[in-house]
Amino acid sequence: MIKKSHWLLVTILILIALVLAIYFYARADANETAEAQQDYKFITTPCWFDADWTASIRCGELHTPETSGAFRLPVVILKDETTARRNDPIVYLQGGPGAGARLHSDGIKSWLSWMRYAALGRDIILIDTRGTGRSTPALVCAEYNRSNQQLLRQHTSLAEELALGFEVTRACFESASAHNSALDYQHFSTEQSARDIRALVQTLGYAEWNILGVSYGTRLALEIANQEIHQPQTTKLKTMVLDSIYPAGFGGVQTWPKVLDEALHKFFKGCAANHECTNAIGDSNRHIVQLFMDTLTRLRKSPMEFTIRRWDGEAPVAFLLNDHRFLSAAFAATYSPRDWIKIAEAINGVAMHSHDQIKPLLEPFVNQSMSSDFNSLTFTAVDCADNPVMAEAEYLTSVGQYPLLQEYTRDQWRYQACHYLAAQRPLLRHQPQVPTLILAGELDPVTPVDWARSVHAEWKNTQLHISKNTAHSVLSSEACLLQSLVGFYDSPDKVFDGCATKEPEIE
């Protein structure tokens, strides 16, 4: 029989063994994280653009580990030279996924103007994430671009266009990874970009830093904040501002029927209440919803040919406007209430067969789809990495709940690239542990205000500011709100009052 003292000794030894195991496990995990960080390198380089050289600008590249693709990610740091400069910079995370940071001459000039106007008193750090902007290796596919330009001139049904896009996209990813293993789709994800950005601020040597994320950039910000909890490092994330929040679990093909339907109905309601908009339509005897659907029917039967001017100075492009392309252009215009008048004028233009009335809607839509500032293949790879494919029956149930445009949403599930770009580990939504300000536009069609209200109700460490009569990207619409952010970054624990004259909704 073993004495009680022996049992006590055995118990103590077991506890010591457990403590030592936990210690060495944690130390090994920390060492592994540190080693991974050391594989990243920031290399200062000459700046590759023309800009205001009275400004203090530092350029460089973040070199990622070979095990994750050996990417070179361009970085631009706009130094704040005011006497009120704080030492905690702001990393700006743009939308997308797939949007570059516009690290070229025109873009940097715009960033300098934005920085001076915002007066945030901090350095601004900009980066082209994997597959965007000037990052290398570049995820490009000549066949993808050629196919898209050919389609613009042809009258194809939406199903035919989706089917062709499905096959071309798959061939592009297969060709890209065969040419360069770094371009395997598994190297593109929000989780991976979060690791890249955390490594960047660590190598730059700041003690604390902040985030300003817009649209998809908010999802990336939340993943960064989650990694900060589980893999702490010496450079500490201090605060986040999330404009038009797009968290994990929202978005993707599965939400398309709801998002499209609600976006168009916001336009229908807003236009019906605006005399300028209703006058532009030119038909007061029929409801705007019926006029919109009649427009789609006309264009399905009789497409219209256009020559669209390119903003980049390239040769104009031929564009055949049919029903589903009109719907896409109209959806793009719902992002800002200021563009709703263009939809109304285009509806009248189709009825009158007036090209001049339609072009203001089409020109930005076509140019944005061809912009080098956005990479559609990167968008596809990251979106599929983040979002699991839902069951077809579940998707069709969602389609049936929004019948007005179901003809245009029914085939989206079948032809989504995520069938062959399967998510290895779907992105999960986590509550941020740092003070976080959420900005939302009441009229936002693509990241609806309900998303912001939902996560704010769950997350106790957040403030929510809802702007009336504003849609997507609140800060691009409310200049005074942008200038108010310095108060939040300086004192994140205080209630954010925003623009006092706008009477915003603060929760």
In short:
The protein folds into 3 domains: 1-38; 42-137 and 185-251 and 427-506, 3-Layer(aba) Sandwich (Rossmann fold), CATH 3.40.50.1820; 254-369, no CATH class. The chain contains 18 helices and 12 strands. The protein has helices at 4-38, 105-118, 142-151, 158-179, 190-204, 216-230, 256-272, 275-281, 288-301, 323-333, 340-352, 355-369, 376-386, 392-401, 406-409, 449-458, 474-477, 479-490, and strands spanning 41-45, 57-63, 72-78, 90-93, 124-127, 208-214, 236-243, 304-308, 317-321, 436-441, 462-467, 505-506.
What does this structure look like?
Residues 89-475 form the AB hydrolase-1 domain. The chain crosses the membrane at residues 7-26. Pfam families: Abhydrolase_1 (PF00561). It is a single chain. The chain has 507 residues and is of the alpha/beta class. The protein folds into three domains: 1-38; 42-137 and 185-251 and 427-506, 3-Layer(aba) Sandwich (Rossmann fold); 254-369, no CATH class. The chain contains 18 helices and twelve strands. The chain has helices spanning 4-38, 105-118, 142-151, 158-179, 190-204, 216-230, 256-272, 275-281, 288-301, 323-333, 340-352, 355-369, 376-386, 392-401, 406-409, 449-458, 474-477, 479-490; strands at 41-45, 57-63, 72-78, 90-93, 124-127, 208-214, 236-243, 304-308, 317-321, 436-441, 462-467, 505-506. The chain has a ten-stranded mixed beta sheet with strand order 1-2-3-5-4-6-7-10-11-12, with helices on both faces. Strands 8-9 form a two-stranded antiparallel sheet. Residues 1-36 have low confidence and may be disordered.
